[in-house]
Amino acid sequence: MYYEFEIGNLFLIMGVIAVCKWLEDRLNTIRLTSVMVDTTIATILFGMLVFLHTEVVTFKNYSAGAVSFDWVFLNIQIILYVYLAVTVSSRIGMAFLTGTLILFYWERGFFSDWRAWLTFIFVLVGSLLICRYAEWLLRQFWRIWLATLIVSVAVWYTVAMTMVNDTFADWAINFLMFNIQFLIVNAFNIRLRRDYNREMMLANQVSHDELTGLKNFRAFSTELNTFYTAFQEQSQSFVLITMDIDHFKHINDTFGHLVGNDVLQQTARVLAHLIDQEGAPNQAYRTGGEEFSLLMPVKNRDEAWLKDFCQRIQQTIRQQQMIVNQQAVQWTVSIGCDDVIQDDDSYLEVYRRADKDLYHSKENGRNMITIRGESVQVG
């Protein structure tokens, strides 16, 4: 019966870690807010640890040979606690870790002893440091093993204060089982992260432009359709901003294609920065050679905001400069902007209007802004 619980809980841990990584990826794919993703995953993890704590309460008075069931579940809890904290990138990890630790200490009645309060603070701080430096720790096995062992020793010491019949054999077998379990979970986690990173790399290559790092036209077409569907089903209006770098061929012909690539990359960085300032789920894309597009939900944004944002794009790009052969290279963009309307038969309708607005800007002198067919004074 002892080994059944060991093996069963070990596979349970690996399954939970795999499910959480899969769930995190899927929730991010459907563009839920980061708080919703974190809350969902943290709830699952917390429920898993509650389940393991329930096992401890049920079997804490039983034993098999020299090893008590209390140790069986304790090691599993510590490893699950640490690995879920470092594997799943939760921005509300502090609340999750604190709540889990409080439950663990409260359930066992540790808070009645002042020494337990010291170990509680030590374990909590250690866990948060493990979360903070997870990527660095996971690069080398001995780092994450040592960090987990330090936390484990503090927990073992606290548990030992309430045990009266444990022998040296109990501690020796417990330490041996801890290392075996840790090795298995660590090997599984390495494989999981390797496969996950490979999938993310392949997905990124399919959906992102290699030169600028922005999403490409394929991703733009897919996500424009997603925005349009949300508009049709939930009335979530959005605006599409398209732009071209003015006289880009002249830049290539005069300074060379490498400089042209630098101009594209710098323009992409500007757009990515401006989009980041506006927050999710706004998106930036490179949709053609020197053409870029932005998708932005309207929410509470009015006409004045849209005009100001387009002017900020132009002003920021005009301020960019590169020195080539002691000659300053500067550039501007023409902008077209339109929003989705109820009469649109498909997501392509708003794209056609925004594209038409862009060409209106280009045909009327460039370095211009056209919003819904009307020219806007350049800021």
Give an account of the 3D structure.
It is built from 13 helices and 10 strands. It is about 65% helix and about 10% strand. Strand 6 (about 320-325) and strand 7 (about 325-330) form a beta hairpin. It has about 375 residues and is an alpha+beta fold. The radius of gyration is 28 Å and the shape is elongated. The strands form 3 sheets. The chain has a 6-stranded mixed β-sheet with strand order 4-5-3-8-9-10, with helices on both faces. Helix 3 (about 70-85) packs across helix 7 and helix 5 runs antiparallel to helix 7 (about 140-160). It has 2 domains: about 1-205, no CATH class; about 215-375, Alpha-Beta Plaits (2-Layer Sandwich). The N and C termini lie far apart (about 75 Å).
Give the secondary structure arrangement, pairings included.
Elements: H1 2-29, H2 34-59, E1 63-64, E2 67-68, H3 69-87, H4 93-107, H5 114-132, H6 134-138, H7 141-160, H8 168-207, H9 217-234, E3 238-245, H10 248-255, H11 257-278, E4 283-286, E5 291-297, H12 303-318, E6 322-324, E7 327-329, E8 333-339, H13 347-363, E9 369-371, E10 374-376
Parallel strand pairs: 8-9
Antiparallel strand pairs: 1-2, 3-5, 3-8, 4-5, 6-7, 9-10
Helix pairs in contact: 1-2, 1-3, 1-8, 2-3, 2-4, 3-7, 3-8, 4-5, 5-7, 10-11
Protein name: GGDEF domain-containing protein
GO molecular function: diguanylate cyclase activity
Organism: Paucilactobacillus vaccinostercus DSM 20634
